[in-house]
Amino acid sequence: MKALILVGGYGTRLRPLTLSIPKPLVDFCNKPILLHQVEALAAAGVDHVILAVSYMSELLEKEMKAQEQKVRRGLSFPLLPAQPPTPGWEEPDSVASLFQLGIRISMSHEEEPLGTAGPLALARDLLSETEDPFFVLNSDVICDFPFQAMVQFHRHHGQEGSIVVTKVEEPSKYGVVVCEADTGRIHRFVEKPQVFVSNKINAGMYILSPAVLQRIQLQPTSIEKEVFPVMAKEGQLYAMELQGFWMDIGQPKDFLTGMCLFLQSLRQKQPERLCSGPGIVGNVLVDPSARIGQNCSIGPNVSLGPGVVVEDGVCIRRCTVLRDAHIRSHSWLESCIVGWRCRVGQWVRMENVTVLGEDVIVNDELYLNGASVLPHKSIGESVPEPRIIM
Asked: Where would I find the Nucleotidyl transferase domain in this sequence (predicted)?
């Protein structure tokens, strides 16, 4: 089977992290977002993944090639940002293989943004090589990926398309899916309903038969607004309800919420992956190469990446700390994302979805409240109100 992952967006909602690398390569719970999806696809029998790329496509392609080289040398998937491939390494343009997963990766380059349906037309030749259905994913989604169940559901109803839906508490904030409770057949989509009609929303995961490709032209097109409503009217689109957690992690506050949900899922399914011991509170994921000092309080809901150093007396709650960051003694962090190779000084307090881009230095004894700091900046004064530091 094949899968198309929509990775061509600019990632503006997740800045400043995406000013350094493409959003699919940002580490989520110590693994690139893209790899979470690819691993789940591989487990469901997918052997060819097509990445619909546009913004920063060269960097994404270099990373795929670097991955192939590392796998050849017996190393694991690199945590990013990564260095370019070694000079002299050659491979056909736009193709890399994730040998560890037995998956081929192809790049489908958009010269102009094509929306969420146009990329399917651009990759038509690859997607229609066989009569098998194929997956389509938004790159922002993290969940208990139900790919095997999707295949069974799609084959059972036998029509052109299946989408995954998830329930939300405030449907008036979303476009909702109105479908039959027993069969899942979709009748219509309603944008931000003021009167309750459904509490199910599109979860950004589809399985489609190749016949759908005949509905899509090679031009900027929205699959949600232009293709799916027509399919629904013709009785060709069905909804499968997701069981388990789901989050669109495309912006920092949701990234942190998604981390909490993911860690809770690990607690239920793979508790051995979580850290325990003195100073560890609740669900905490720590890379084996990270170092934690004495008299710290780490957690609940914390992810510490490779090479992270946490000095004595530090308190970290509901935070992601990315590769090679260094948190000096007696600092206090809550609801923050600390970027790659950042340095947070002593007695610093950061909270309220403060996000540090790559290689940021925060001097001693400062307070950051909801700050969004661009890469390679040095912060020498407190930020008492939420703002962007350029």
From this structure: 2-260
